[in-house]
Design goal:
This protein has 220 residues and is of the alpha+beta class. The chain has seven helices and seven strands, in the order ααββααββαβαββα.
Length: 220
């Protein structure tokens, strides 16, 4: 018997705490709150063993963790980033300063908006990582990390609701593992195909029933 959604979410709270300790930075006034482990003089080597999840071919409920992390945050602004993405230095402080004095100005060393974009063609597959509040739509918890496209439903909803994305200068994320490369994985490829079919059929229909349609918004 599969566990209920509430039981699954409860069992993942500890993992969610780990997720936003390392991968989600919270902005409040001029403070960045995050967990930074104390450095050790001689770190003991960690043996790489096969995890229980991998041994049992369990999927990773990434959107459950994203939502739990967002719901638990105690600040107004939140950057729901992935664990391997590192924000540029001073991002939180500069963002708060910009939010206090929302302005368009000439190029400076400060953080400003240099472009306003939408999730319209040719960027209809864009899955942006952005600073938001908990007023924004949640992530679909039925989607898994292995199936990919796990942020597409939320991005499609933002497009239908006509969100503008304020693209900032002097603000960026660094992907620690580097450029992703495709690695053949029959098990995951099957999940990718299955999740894609679900997104393009059931999820799309549900979202359009709730929010309607918009001509330039695509879910593909």
């Amino acid at each position: 018997m599969r566990p209920s959604a509430s039981l699954l979410r409860f069992s993942l709270v500890l993992n969610a705490c780990l997720l936003f300790s390392y991968g989600v930075w919270y902005m409040h006034q001029s403070t960045v709150v995050g967990f930074v482990p104390e450095p050790t003089a001689q770190a003991a080597p960690v043996a790489r063993t096969e995890s229980y999840r991998k041994a049992k071919h369990l999927t990773y409920p990434v959107n459950v963790l994203r939502n739990v992390a967002r719901e638990t945050v105690m600040t107004h602004y939140v950057l729901p980033s992935d664990v391997e993405l590192y924000p540029s230095e001073g991002l939180a402080e500069q963002f708060i300063d910009m939010a206090k004095e929302w302005t368009f100005s000439k190029e400076t060393q400060q953080m400003d908006v240099f472009h306003v974009g939408k999730r319209h063609p040719p960027f209809e597959k864009w899955e942006p990582i952005y600073i938001c509040t908990n007023q924004e739509p949640a992530y679909d918890e039925r989607l898994t990390w292995e199936g990919k496209m796990d942020k597409m439903g939320q991005g499609y909803t933002l497009c239908i609701q006509d969100y503008d994305f304020m693209i900032l200068n002097n603000a960026f994320l660094v992907h620690k593992p580097g450029i992703k490369k495709y690695k053949p994985d029959k098990w995951r490829d099957t999940l990718v195909s299955k999740q894609r079919r679900f997104i393009l059929s059931a999820e799309k229909l549900e979202l359009e029933r709730m929010f309607g349609r918009r001509k330039q918004c695509n879910l593909s």
